[in-house]
């Protein structure tokens, strides 16, 4: 008998159907990955299994069989007896999933108290053991710290510690590594694998990352529009997908598709960075975020800066775009004027398409704002330019009257790119511009960027921690670690013949990477 068997699950939000007869199963000790785009229903399915749907959601039909019991009919009080003790949850966002006013130790200890442990010494000992078990150094210190004092990877380890505190039979991991650097992601997934082997725990892994799913699961469940479109063993489904949607997902995943390297030309440099340094003051101590960085970007090509969080890549990008002054060093951008007119030459596209657009403005107003700011054209000319930009980024003309909240993440990022192109810049600085997007939407944006580069001769400085994406989009790469560039070269050279140990570590962490 399966550990978990879901039969014909149906869920609606405010009366609108969201899940349509979802069925899947998980065997003891097995990893089942549920994959699909945003809106496919994968997270709704995961939350429905343990009664954590939002207030406007209704479980309309279906059975959730776990250990011989049908959880679908259980009250919240009965479900609390299962959550934690039998089924553990690792949520997606560690920043929002931990209480900011409670110490890490107190939050893990609460899991034990809720399920009957009353001995304070026993709770403390177990908390310290759990923190050590998930690989956090100096558990005594970590237990006394608050979430904001920990890195993203450390916070995710705390959530895993809480999820395994009572050694549950099933862990539901909802996008547990989507916000993490590639090396931290690998460590977290290795940890989950180790715990699964030690405790025999089964894992239901919810993810939009096909590379992670391919490398870490026994079986795949592919969802689209609230339905399961295909499922089977991971090896079998990767080798011979039946559905066109599955084939598209696999083709769009950078870590699974063997696209040729982009070869750089020998043009004049559009960006020249020499000996760049940026110091910050943390308390009374100076902190050097960027330490002697130098690189060049040939006109009409894409240069990627890659590295983990804290490597200095975003600080470098902000200095190139003149959003932060360097402590020392020089940045030369061919043809760029000084002063305010610099913005016509260099534009920045941010990581988060949800936070970078003014929610009070229409899409037309957002795209047209740079034109108004620089006094370019009369009203009629600006309206024509907005229509041209929407067409160039493959958005229908009618979206100009909508607000950002009415668009998907991919559509919003297209709007952000259209806004950046409005004043006809020659250089775009793209700061993690596709990291928040699903694999299919990500592929669409990358194709758009490549097409725009060909058509307009744009030069890109591309900031990313995702080496699978970098392999696809960039001509040249600089690898950053602790504020310094440790390796630079063509993308083909860096990926095929890495010289630095840190580069090799990053490449080894790409899920199911293409060699």
TrEMBL record:
Residues spanning the membrane: none
Source organism superkingdom: Bacteria
Stored SUPFAM superfamilies: P-loop containing nucleoside triphosphate hydrolases
Gene Ontology BP annotations: peptide transport; transmembrane transport
Keyword Amino-acid biosynthesis: no
Sorted UniProt keywords: ATP-binding, Nucleotide-binding, Transport
Pfam families with a match to the protein in the record: ABC_tran, oligo_HPY
Residue ranges of every copy of the ABC transporter domain listed in the record: 4-250, 271-507
MF (Gene Ontology): ATP binding; ATP hydrolysis activity
Family stated for the protein in its record: Belongs to the ABC transporter superfamily.
NCBIfam families documented for this protein: PRK10419.1 (NF007739), PRK11308.1 (NF008453)
Protein name: Peptide/nickel transport system ATP-binding protein
Natural source organism: Nonomuraea thailandensis
């Amino acid at each position: 008998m399966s550990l978990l068997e879901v039969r014909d699950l149906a869920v609606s939000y405010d009366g609108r159907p969201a899940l349509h007869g979802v069925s899947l199963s998980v065997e003891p000790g097995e990893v089942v990955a549920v994959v699909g785009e945003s809106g496919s229903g994968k997270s709704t399915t995961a939350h429905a299994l343990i009664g954590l749907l939002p207030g406007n959601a209704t479980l309309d039909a279906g059975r959730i069989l776990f250990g011989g019991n049908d959880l679908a009919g259980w009250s919240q009080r009965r479900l609390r007896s299962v959550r934690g003790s039998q089924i553990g949850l690792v949520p997606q966002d560690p920043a929002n999933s931990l209480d900011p006013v409670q110490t890490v130790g107190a939050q893990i200890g609460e899991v034990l108290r809720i399920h009957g442990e009353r001995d304070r010494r026993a709770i403390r000992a177990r908390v310290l053991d759990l923190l050590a078990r998930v690989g956090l150094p100096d558990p005594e210190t970590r237990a006394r710290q608050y979430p904001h004092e920990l890195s993203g990877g450390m916070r995710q380890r705390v959530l895993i510690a809480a999820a395994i505190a009572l050694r549950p039979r099933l862990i539901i991991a909802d996008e547990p590594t989507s916000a993490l650097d590639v090396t931290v992601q690998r460590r977290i997934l290795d940890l989950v694998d180790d715990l699964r082997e030690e405790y025999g725990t089964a894992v239901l892994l919810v993810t939009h990352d096909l590379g992670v799913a391919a490398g870490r699961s026994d079986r795949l469940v592919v969802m689209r529009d609230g339905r399961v479109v295909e499922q089977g063993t991971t090896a079998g489904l990767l080798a011979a997908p039946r559905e066109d949607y599955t084939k598209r997902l696999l083709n769009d995943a950078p870590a699974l598709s063997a696209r040729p390297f982009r070869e750089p030309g020998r043009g004049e440099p559009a960006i020249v960075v020499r000996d760049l340094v940026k110091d910050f003051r943390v308390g009374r101590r100076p902190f050097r975020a960027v330490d002697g960085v130098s690189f060049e970007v040939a006109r009409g090509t894409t240069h990627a800066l890659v590295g983990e969080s804290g490597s200095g890549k975003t600080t470098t990008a902000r200095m190139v775009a003149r959003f932060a002054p360097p402590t020392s060093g020089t940045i030369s951008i061919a043809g760029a004027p000084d002063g305010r007119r610099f913005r016509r030459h260099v534009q920045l596209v941010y990581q988060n398409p949800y936070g970078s657009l003014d929610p009070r403005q229409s899409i037309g107003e957002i795209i047209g704002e740079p034109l108004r700011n620089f006094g370019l054209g009369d009203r009629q000319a600006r309206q024509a330019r907005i229509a041209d930009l929407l067409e160039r980024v493959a958005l229908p003309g009618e979206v100009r009257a909508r607000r950002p909240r009415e668009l998907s993440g991919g559509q919003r990022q297209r709007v952000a790119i259209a806004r950046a192109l409005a004043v006809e810049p020659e250089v775009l600085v793209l700061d993690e511009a596709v990291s928040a997007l699903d694999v299919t939407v990500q592929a669409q944006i990358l194709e758009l960027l490549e097409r725009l580069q060909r058509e307009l001769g744009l030069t890109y400085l591309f900031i990313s921690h995702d080496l699978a994406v970098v392999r696809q989009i960039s001509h040249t790469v600089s690898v950053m670690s602790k504020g310094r560039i440790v390796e630079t070269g063509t993308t083909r050279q860096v990926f095929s013949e890495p010289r630095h140990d840190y580069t090799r570590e990053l490449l080894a962490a790409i899920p199911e990477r293409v060699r």
